[in-house]
Write a structure and sequence with these properties.
The structure is a homodimer. The first copy, chain A, is α/β, with parallel strands linked by helices. The first copy, chain A, is about 50% helix and about 15% strand. Chains A and B meet through helix 8, helix 9 and helix 10 of A and helix 8, helix 9, helix 10 and helix 11 of B.
Chain lengths: ~325, ~325
């Protein structure tokens, strides 16, 4: 397999991106194609032991940064590592594209007629699926690709998410739910209410509407939402987890006895952290794009990049893009 | 002051509701009017020391429960404790109404032409404001009264929230922000984008759009959102806090050493809990209604009911309803 890795993606690029690709090349035995500033990539590669690994470098003269707006990226950076990298997938020279860069940018480049992968025929809007970093690992889709949605988009998010979860995570007959402000009939905004009959008629294993509380408890394998709400959910979850961590640290340090207690309990906190670690999950698949694209967190370290590459491999292996193509025709 | 307390509101009614009213009568020296099933209320009062307190009982033959839909309440329960209680405020026999019951029910009854308080002239939609239980105590508005909103509703939520925070919490020139999936220009759904120019032209201290992370850090005094998103934010925050608590407990108990550490650190966890305690906050004001209505959490205990009554008193005292009336004319 040949995987393109955007070397200029992560916040600390190209260090974690290159190191992650090296880890993945060693672990999976696949070819990694690092795209970005050749000199910088080679300087990073020189720090690594790459003996016997299959690693290629493709130069790209421009770099997309987090503050770039999608419209500027499309017009102003035609030689970015995302443009160059995705065109390799489009032209059949590689099987998947992994980036820890700007999500909106990745989506915008993927949609470009010339270099981009475009949509799978029949897909109304590609969506970003995020594996929620809790025990049950449900998929939340969309997480920000589409701030404004129509019922038929949400229906497709459910279908694409269901196929992803079934194939990549191995969940049989995934439970699909709409994320809402209440489970009872009559709850939800008009988007949710209009989507319910479509879900009911869809043939998906639609289990109804669930609140965030039930979703966090594993009440669904796929939580469907518009991209605005999905993004707010993920960001609220991160904010509260981080706020609570800070508060616990402060209060533990507030007295000698609780400080001692905190020291003794430290391994427990470490285990909590690793159970909630988004790095374990890898990255977010951009579903509905006609090719495999994974967007990892900007804060990714080498390990997270390697995990994201592993996830991309599984999507290729399990033929998720083909499954969505077939699913949409049905 | 005369405060009506819905004795049939909380999940464990009428125990906490009656006990909370007794606590408030003692603390504030005001008259509490308990509305609900007279026999049940009197049985609860008999358990309390009410010597020297001013407590009245008004019978209401019906009770609204959490599973009642607003439409059923309006048509089917004309003698509910909410109907009877709010009509006392409407008729000038009391200054405020406090309930730990069904939020949608309270809103529906408040809007009834016959017994309800109605809207303040000029208010398009009343909204539920919730004090976010973090250090800085920002107000999140709307928290579920309006699942579908228009830009002009959000503008009014900002105005009403700002007046509430200024008068009741004593914040000078409150910072008003729209809750969004990003702070940059171009982020947000169409509702947010259309509300921005209204906020900018409003004369409010509009500080822009903020993400949940910044809101939790105290980046605004008033976070404005539609009721669907607001409710999802609150519910996600509660879900994540509860999930993390559970995870921490489990991991601490996983070994003898961390169990000991957890015991020693217990006072710290207690302090964390009390700092995040929604009971401290009291209840959620229903802003835009032409009278003072506070909706407390269904899980409220007597202390939370007392706090909610205290909050109702402050709203009366600080003339928030009058301030909104004046503010809307300006």
């Amino acid at each position: 397999m040949r995987i393109v890795v955007d070397a200029m993606g992560s916040d600390d690029n190209p260090g974690p991106d290159v190191a992650g690709a090296v880890l993945a090349a060693r672990k999976f035995g696949d070819t990694m194609i690092l795209v970005g500033d050749q000199a910088q990539i080679e300087a990073e590669l020189a720090k690594q032991d790459t003996a016997g690994l299959s690693i290629e470098v493709v130069h790209a003269g421009q770099q997309i940064v987090m503050t770039d707006k999608p419209s500027d990226i499309v017009k102003g950076k035609p030689d970015s590592s995302m443009h160059v990298g995705m065109s390799l997938v489009k032209n059949g020279e590689a099987d998947a594209f992994v980036t820890a860069g700007n999500t909106g940018g990745a989506l915008a480049v993927a949609m470009l007629r010339q270099v981009g992968l475009g949509r799978i025929p029949g897909v109304k809007r590609p969506a970003l699926g995020v594996i929620f970093p809790i025990e049950e690992r449900p998929l939340l889709i969309d997480n920000g690709a589409n701030a404004d949605c129509k019922p038929e988009y949400l229906l497709q998010f459910g279908l694409m998410g269901s196929l992803y979860v079934e194939r990549v995570l191995g969940v049989q007959n995934p439970r699909v739910a709409l994320i809402s402000n209440g489970e009872e009939e009559g709850k939800g905004n008009s988007l949710i209410k209009e989507t319910i009959p479509l879900m009911q008629a869809s043939g998906l294993n639609y289990v109804g509407n669930i609140e965030p509380k039930e979703f966090v408890k594993g009440g669904a394998d796929v939580g469907v939402t518009d991209g605005f709400t999905g993004n707010i959910i993920i960001k609220t979850a991160e904010a509260i987890a981080s706020y609570m961590n800070g508060l616990i640290k402060t209060e533990i340090k507030a007295s000698p006895l609780t400080t001692l207690g905190g020291l003794l309990a430290k391994p427990a906190f470490g285990r909590v952290k690793s159970r909630l670690d988004p790095d374990e999950v890898g990255g977010a698949p951009l579903l509905g794009v006609n090719g495999v694209v994974i967007v990892a967190h900007g804060r990714s370290n080498a390990y997270a990049i390697k995990q994201a590459i592993g996830q991309a491999r599984r999507i290729v292996e399990k033929q998720v893009v083909e499954a969505i193509q077939t699913g949409l025709k049905a």
